[in-house]
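Section 5: illustrative case.
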């Protein structure tokens, strides 16, 4: 009988909840539990610059061994490598923010382990073992989890000197882009409001007041519809809250969100709502 944990897929727990539930160790990335005949795998995206990568439903998981070449004779790596024949169950947690363990469900070794070159903790190049693991149950991450993941990684690389960045950038080359299913709740803007405000702008950006930088395939000036108070922040979908912006200004509103710009756009949209 395969152990069935009480956690739901996607649930985030503390380290203590994790090791108590599985009766496994409280440290490390690969944590065997003889009580429950399983291994808990932690894919920690906050620790090293090297990262386990997802390709759809498949995770390429890095084995254990911090210094020197990793070995399949290591008892923990061996447990993963032999899991299909021994029947030992693999359970995965991901860490996208420090100390928060998100349960991803049961995984199965889905291909032959292979070797990859990565630097060890001392910065020396060595060989690691990669394990292709497929999620037993379909799963996806949420938009906000993805955002946290990207943010955490971005902050990590920002502090690096450009020489190091180049070295890493070259080594990080993959044949296929890492990808995985993400669930999102998307706001659907009203087309009448978007089209009316764009038409009203007559090809002129309502923030910088310059002509649209290019025409679309239909020969119309290209502007984008923007909600001054974002829908995700509770803003209404109305002509009083919608403007037509050039792509540059649109990005600026999302990245900088300058209060002066917001005020200027709110005034414009309100005036337009009063005009006919
Ligand atoms: Zn503009
Ligand atoms: Zn926008």
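Designed sequence:
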């Amino acid at each position: 009988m395969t152990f069935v944990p009480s956690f739901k897929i996607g649930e985030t727990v503390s380290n203590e909840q994790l090791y108590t539930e599985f009766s496994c160790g409280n440290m490390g990335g690969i944590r065997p539990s003889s009580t429950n005949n399983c291994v808990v795998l932690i894919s920690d995206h906050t620790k090293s610059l090297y990262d386990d990568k997802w390709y759809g439903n498949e995770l390429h998981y890095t084995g254990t061994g911090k210094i020197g070449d990793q070995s399949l004779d290591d008892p923990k790596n061996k447990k993963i490598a032999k899991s299909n024949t021994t029947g030992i169950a693999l359970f995965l947690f991901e860490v996208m923010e420090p100390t928060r363990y998100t349960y991803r469900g049961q995984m199965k070794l889905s291909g032959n382990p292979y070797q990859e070159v990565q630097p060890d903790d001392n910065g020396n190049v060595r060989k690691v073992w990669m394990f292709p693991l497929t999620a037993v149950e379909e799963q996806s991450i949420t938009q906000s989890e993805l955002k946290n993941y990207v943010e955490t990684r971005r902050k990590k690389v920002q502090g690096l000197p450009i020489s190091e960045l180049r070295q890493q950038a070259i080594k990080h080359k993959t044949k296929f882009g890492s990808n995985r299913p993400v669930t999102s709740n998307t706001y659907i803007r009203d087309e009448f409001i978007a089209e009316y405000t764009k038409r009203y702008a007559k090809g002129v950006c309502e923030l910088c007041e310059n002509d649209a930088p290019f025409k679309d395939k239909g020969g119309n000036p290209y502007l984008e519809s923007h909600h001054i108070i974002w829908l995700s922040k509770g803003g209404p979908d109305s002509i009083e809250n919608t403007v037509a912006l050039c792509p540059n200004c649109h990005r600026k509103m999302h990245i900088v969100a300058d209060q002066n710009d917001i005020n200027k756009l709110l005034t414009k949209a309100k005036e337009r709502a009063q005009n006919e």
